[in-house]
Amino acid sequence: MANFVFGDCVEITCQHVLGRFSYFPKANESFTIDKGGIRNNDDANQLTANGQLMIQKNRVRWYVEGPIAFDQISDDQMTTLNKITESPITGTWTFSFLSGGIYTGNGMPVGDLNGDSNSGQMTLKVAGGGILAEIS
Q1: Residue (of 15, 27, 7, 26) closest to 124 by Cα position
Q2: 122/71 Cα distance (integer angstroms)
Q3: Phi, psi of 46, rounded to the nearest 5 degrees
Q4: Is there a contact between 107 and 38 (Cβ–Cβ < 8 Å)?
Q5: 37 near 63, Cβ under 8 Å?
Q6: Distance between CA atoms of 111 and 124, rounded to whole angstroms?
Q7: 15-23: which pairs have CB atoms within 8 A and are 24 or more residues apart?
Q8: How many other CB atoms are found less than 10 A from the CB of residue 94?
């Protein structure tokens, strides 16, 4: 029987035309991983009048979302994330986990980029087209 191994995200890197950037995930926090691809719409009304199932298929982008450390003094996280977001060019993102899992994909930060001054963290959400690849 196989073991189920999981754990902290330990490093996030972005290789971009602007440079190579590293971000530091918070320990003992959850990250949401959606590898993207095709989804079937969940709509209870997708039936014909005689009861046949109708299946609506949609493509969704991949994304990884979770909290990273935020330093108010250096402000490196917000500064570099804003520069990447301003660029029309996606970066190659790599997400490494304590379990040994490593995911990579071409994408861009999406959503708000705001830090929490009391907890020292900010939520980072990176999304891209295609499928998020698992390389380990």
Answers
A1: 26
A2: 10
A3: -85, 70
A4: no
A5: no
A6: 8
A7: 15/91, 15/92, 15/94, 16/84, 16/87, 16/89, 16/91, 16/92, 17/87, 17/89, 17/91, 18/80, 18/83, 18/84, 18/87, 21/80, 21/84, 21/91, 23/68, 23/69, 23/77, 23/124
A8: 17
pLDDT mean values, one per 10 residues, the chain (136 residues): 89 98 96 97 94 95 97 87 97 97 98 93 96 93
* Strand 32-34 versus strand 37-40 pairing type: unpaired
Q: What residue ranges in 41-120 does DSSP mark as E strands?
A: 57-60, 62-69, 91-97, 102-109, 115-116
Nearest to 129 by CA among 56, 31, 39, 63: 63
